[in-house]
Amino acid sequence: MPGSPGPAGPAGSAGSAGPQGSMGPRGDKGDAGKPGCEGLPGPKGRPGILGFKGTTGPAGPRGAKGDAGDKGSQGPPGPKGPQGTTGQAGSRGAKGDAGYKGSQGPPGPKGPPGTLGSNWKQCVWKNINDDKDTGLMKVNV
Fold it and tell me: Where are the alpha helices (DSSP H) in the chain?
């Protein structure tokens, strides 16, 4: 039979740290915290895309008259106008030059019997040397 144990010996020195153990299970969610203070404004965002074209507005008031433009080129002649009214008669003109002598016209109509009577006849002389071309002759009837 063995004897009784002796008094305890002095404590030994601590051993080196062992390897780290695996992570334990996730704990329960804690209570919500107090609301924080308002933060600084963020940076300016990018410009947006253009919207649809709007409807045309009402016409504005009439503007002031502009300066006169340059003179245009000559246009084509227009249509002939209506006949004008007849003007006043002009003054009589100067006498013109004498015309050329015309040809002899046809014989005229026979006139009424003359006042010499019915027993006188006109005749032509056959003798040219008489210096008489025509004459009257009394005829006894």
Answer: none
> Which residues 6+ apart lie within 8 Å of 44 measured at CB?
none
CA distance 61 to 65: 12
Q: What is the pLDDT of residues 12-57, one digit of tens each?
A: 777 788 788 788 788 888 888 888 888 898 899 899 899 889 899 9
- The pTM for the full model equals 0.18
Report yes or no: 118 and 136 within 8 Å, Cβ to Cβ. Answer: no
Please tell me the distance from the alpha carbon of residue 113 to that of residue 120, in angstroms, as a whole number: 11
128 φψ region: left (φ > 0), alpha (ψ -120 to 50), beta (else): alpha
Q: How many residues does the chain have?
A: 141
Look up residue 55 and give its amino acid: T
Give the C-alpha separation, 76 to 73, whole Å: 10
Query: Which residues, at least 6 apart from 114, have a Cβ–Cβ distance to it below 8 Å?
Result: 120
